[in-house]
């Protein structure tokens, strides 16, 4: 190494060590708040070199210093602490320090009232570090895998889930830290975490598709747990003001999950046609299906209605037949799983299926659906026979529902053909960096004070 190169590397080391020392050891007060913000911004600028070079990050000296430093674990913990503390901005009273971070914070204050800018910046830097797929072990990812103090972190995540960097942070914690996942699933107020994600999925558009994907993946991870799938049908939401398709009141969290995921599947299959998206939705529904309980009539109508819409499309479509056929099969398996495991608890679903029994007619002789349709048909025929014996009295909905309720405990469930338990598990893609790296840098460009030329990375 020549003298100039050695000097440059020495300066890089001094700079990075200095930044690390600030973020790790300098307390956050009014006077030091802008110092922390600018230190994070400088860190992001240094890391952004990967956007402007064809070299692998393992060949970049800056990356080697940052990822091989003995302080890397402490830096990761410091960033998590900064995010968790959610320390508000500056009052400037009694302070003579007024820097660029203050000015930018002031200019951005209109959109950052809820979550302090420093906390967002800390999360952005952390997800940039965590999502680097280096040849050696990533110490920042290891920090997320090993932390064990979750209460404040969980609360901070819940109040900041509208921000995409928070959703990414939550994903990595759930995916890599089994203790954190157990902690989250044990929370009695899990709706505080789930409802903002459902809102992100519901309101997703082309510009926020990555946010929707990550929210769906998190939902899929949560539905891998049986107790979660039971709990969501016990939590009742008084209202859901952002759900504009229909006014919802006194709906269970489980019912809301079904509404949002079925709506997303229908929209995606008929318009966006992104197989990855609807596959995750259907996988979450399938995981939940054996624990469906006391579904509202509107929820049942939307679930069965999804099958009806896709069935009509399937019968007249010449393209996308394979994708629609797979979706129809999974929806039938969801219905079958519910009827096999929770028939007594789902009177409204049985009523909805009886009312719409004609939608299954064209599939009875289709080899792709014949076996599963047979199960559903047996259930419907059983209840039809019970209704026929009471047909003179079945003049209104309430009477029909009463017959269903009275007949459900006597249903001979042994008649049904046994199918494997519906169980889907999230598996990270083989090269996740191809998704995550462009995504995290687009977030840095959009939400930090660091300007990056948009042509340098690929957006959604």
From TrEMBL:
What cellular component GO annotations does this protein have? Answer: Golgi apparatus
Name this polypeptide is given? Dymeclin
Q: Which family does it belong to?
A: Belongs to the dymeclin family.
The Gene Ontology biological process annotation of the record reads: Golgi organization
Cross-referenced InterPro entries, in alphabetical order? Dymeclin (IPR019142)
Q: Which UniProt keywords apply?
A: Lipoprotein, Myristate
Per the record, the domain of life is Eukaryota
Origin species: Nezara viridula
């Amino acid at each position: 190494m020549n003298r100039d190169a050695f000097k440059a590397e020495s300066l890089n080391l001094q700079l990075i060590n200095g930044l690390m020392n600030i973020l790790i050891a300098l307390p956050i007060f009014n006077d030091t708040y802008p110092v922390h913000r600018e230190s994070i911004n400088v860190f992001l600028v240094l890391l952004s070199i990967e956007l402007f070079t064809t070299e692998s990050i393992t060949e970049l000296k800056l990356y080697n210093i940052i990822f091989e430093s003995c302080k890397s674990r402490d830096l990761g913990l410091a960033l998590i602490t900064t995010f968790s503390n959610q320390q508000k901005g500056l009052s400037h009273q009694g302070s003579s320090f007024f820097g660029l971070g203050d000015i930018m914070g002031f200019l951005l204050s209109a959109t950052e009232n809820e979550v302090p800018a420093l906390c967002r910046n800390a999360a952005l830097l952390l997800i940039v570090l965590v999502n680097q797929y280096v040849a050696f072990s990533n110490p920042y990812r290891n920090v997320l895998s090993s932390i064990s103090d979750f209460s404040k972190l969980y609360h901070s995540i819940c109040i900041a889930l509208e921000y995409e960097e928070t959703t990414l942070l939550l994903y990595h914690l759930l995916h890599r830290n089994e203790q954190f996942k157990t902690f989250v699933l044990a929370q009695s107020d899990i709706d505080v975490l789930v409802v903002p994600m459902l809102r992100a999925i519901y309101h997703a558009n082309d510009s926020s598709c990555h946010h929707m994907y990550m929210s769906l993946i998190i939902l899929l991870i949560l539905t891998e747990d049986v107790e979660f799938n039971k709990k969501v049908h016990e939590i009742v939401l008084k209202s859901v003001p952002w759900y504009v398709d229909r006014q919802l009141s006194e709906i269970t969290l489980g019912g809301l999950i079904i509404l949002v995921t079925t709506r997303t599947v229908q929209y995606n299959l008929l318009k966006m046609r992104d197989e990855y998206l609807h596959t995750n939705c259907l996988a979450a529904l399938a995981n939940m299906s054996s624990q469906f309980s006391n579904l509202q009539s509107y929820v049942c109508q939307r679930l069965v209605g999804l099958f009806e819409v896709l069935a009509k499309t399937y019968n007249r479509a010449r393209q996308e037949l394979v994708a629609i056929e797979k979706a129809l099969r999974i929806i039938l398996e969801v219905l079958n799983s519910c009827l096999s495991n929770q028939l007594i608890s789902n009177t409204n679903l049985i009523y909805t299926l009886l009312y719409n029994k004609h939608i299954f007619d064209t599939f009875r002789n289709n080899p792709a659906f014949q076996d599963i349709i047979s199960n559903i048909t047996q259930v419907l025929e059983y209840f039809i026979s019970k209704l026929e014996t009471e047909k003179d009295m079945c003049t209104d909905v309430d009477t029909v529902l009463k017959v269903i309720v009275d007949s459900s405990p006597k249903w001979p469930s042994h008649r049904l053909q046994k199918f494997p338990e519906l169980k889907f598990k999230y598996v990270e893609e083989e090269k996740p960096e191809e998704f995550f790296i462009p995504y995290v840098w687009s977030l840095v460009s959009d939400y930090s004070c660091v300007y990056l030329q948009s042509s340098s990375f690929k957006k959604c």
